[in-house]
Amino acid sequence: MDEVDSATCVRLRLVTFAVFTTTGDSNGEAFTRRVYVIAFDSILAANYEHKIVSEPCLSSSASPYLSMTVFSRYSTVPESLHEPLQDAEFLSFLQSTLDEEKGCSHHWINRSGNLNSSFKKDGIFLIVAGKFFEDSHYSGTNNLISLQKVKLLQQRYPSLQIIGFQPSSSISTNAADKHLLWRIMADFITFPVLLSNKYHHEMEDSACYLLFKGFGSPSIYHEKDINAGNLEEAVKSITSSHVESSRAGNKLDSPWANPIQIMKEPYYTSSLRNLFLCFPACISVDEDGKRLFLSDSNHHRIFILDADARILDVIGSSPGFEDSEFENSKLMRPAASFYHPSEDCLYFVDSENHAIRRADLERRVVETIYPTNTSNKDASLWSWVLEKFGKKSAVDAKSVESHSDLLFPWHLLKSSSNDLFILNQSFNTLWVVDMTSGDMKQVVKGFQSILETCGQIIMEKSSVMKHIPDDWLQQMSANRFLDGVPHGDLICSIAKLNGDVIFCDAAGQMVYKLNGDSGAVSSFQFSNFGILGLPYWFSFPLEKVCADDNVLADMHIDHVEGFSLLPGRVSISVKVAIPVDMDLVEPLSRSSVWCQARGTAMEISGVESKAEFSEKVGVAQQWYDEIDHLPFTTSEKESNALVETSVNRELQDGRGCFDCAIATSPGTSEIIIIAPLYLRLKRNSSLQNQAEKASRILDILDPLRKSTRNSVIQFLLSSKRDLEELIFVKCLHLRLKFDSSGHPKADNSKGVVLTDSSVEVKVAF
């Protein structure tokens, strides 16, 4: 007898019905399950698929939901929201979602795959709820302000667990993938967001905040139109039992605070971080020196370029807040900048640090001019180590106080006097700062009042946009909040140099030049990537790599190979085969290759002349070199026990090549090599369309094929630009293992005979 066990309805782009039937004998010993799948196209109303799949069941008590594959598309049929939940019901539902990325009523985004350890269920939660992800890039000023409130609390209270909540009639994300990614990138949303067709009763018509401590607590604090100060007071009140942790988290100016831990980065855009540019937001020029200053905002750095897009220098090393030399300074989402020719200094907005900073281009140092410095002495552990070894940097890392007057600045304009005009992204606040003293002179609220103060300068800056074709402006601009100033949000994203117009396309992650004579638009052809060193997100603390293999566990390993050799010097030649549909934009630079040996191998950077050591390299490799040189100097006789790296400037047979050397002792060892390859799709490749090109790029950017892959592909396709112009970085990760257990004895039977060996490693990906 046939019996209907269950019926499920998957409402995606195709409305799919699956009916399970079970047949078998009365004892339940031999059952066969049939799955009838009927897919009806809700748009064409014409095509359907009827498929029967039979599979055995062990018994009638077996689960009615046997494993099967469902090919999902996304719905165009809106699903209705459930009835609003009261406090206790909402907390119960929220708790049920914490251990599961997707469910029938929810879908987490911007949350790492480690679901079990993401939240402390007895901790303190702040829910910011609203319609943040609609069918446009931005859904209004109020939502932006709401996000900035909670981002500020996230910086001040790292232990506070913040969740964004989006009531949605459909929990599938495909229809809004590009908007989700754009919003997360543009506003740098670092906390996880929960999409759900259920919602709290306070969420019906506007954004609101829900604050509670542990899911077992019956009390819940919810408010809609609350200001940032009151919200922080509420957080302080509910965290009263965690006074010590709150106090430690609230002091952003503490020299012992680790900015890279406090200032998290979005998980949902982690694949896009491997693009050469990640949200290039603002650009300014030095017309006399023919230089450009490009803010690569979500990489927390500023490029100094010449007119031919050759990288001359880089300001910033990693996310954080620290004044130092360019390669050691730390920024957090730098935005607009202004070059002062008489000082040879670049003034720029450090958005997520709520600061105005100055880069002295001659001395190559970064200083903070607002807020004012509270201490000229750096009490960090690293500075203490350097000072003890007599290697204290001439530029102290300065600690600064977070100042409530300047929050999330973005645009920067120079007045005719000696003042800087700073505006936030929503253009509802203007700060006037004295460029010399760093004093805050005035705070102006409201767009009309701002126009009365600096409207002429805004109009002059926006007048450059008349040269840009409308279709480019439509993609680049979010049309944000500037009445009477079309695309006013781009006023710091466009500049003129030598009669040409240079503009940033943050949506397409590109920079373009409009020729002043012909009107043709072409992409910037960047060069000299070696000066960048190893990107900060590929570098790892030295002591953690030596002690814990899990540090590199989340990083895809491209090549593992083992060798059995006699102890001694081992010369390693690495040849990387570049895929046929890819071009290596530039050969590898010595400063970019990161090597670390473990076990019986010796890993110490080779002896360098003073001139070589002063070469501007990535901060990670420089720190390792400094550590190695602090306690001792290496003689020439010891140089055969060092890791040495060199790079061949030419490609050999379509391969990128570099060499390194280690010294091994009897036993086993391993060397980890990480090297960034800057790639671009080959012109006129076999890839037929933009979708294939985007998928191929993702094969390189995301070899682990994370759940965000489809979203990133949709985002790349949304830019409507030629993906063959997009430069991205593939970080080559090699693990080479050496077994040197056997070795000949010396004549005195005590020493070890060291042997020179060489190996060749061929890598394809």
Automatic annotation (TrEMBL):
Domain of life: Eukaryota
Keyword set includes Repeat: yes
InterPro entries in the record: 6-blade_b-propeller_TolB-like (IPR011042), NHL_repeat (IPR001258)
Keywords assigned: Repeat
Name assigned to this protein: OLC1v1006803C1
Native source species: Oldenlandia corymbosa var. corymbosa
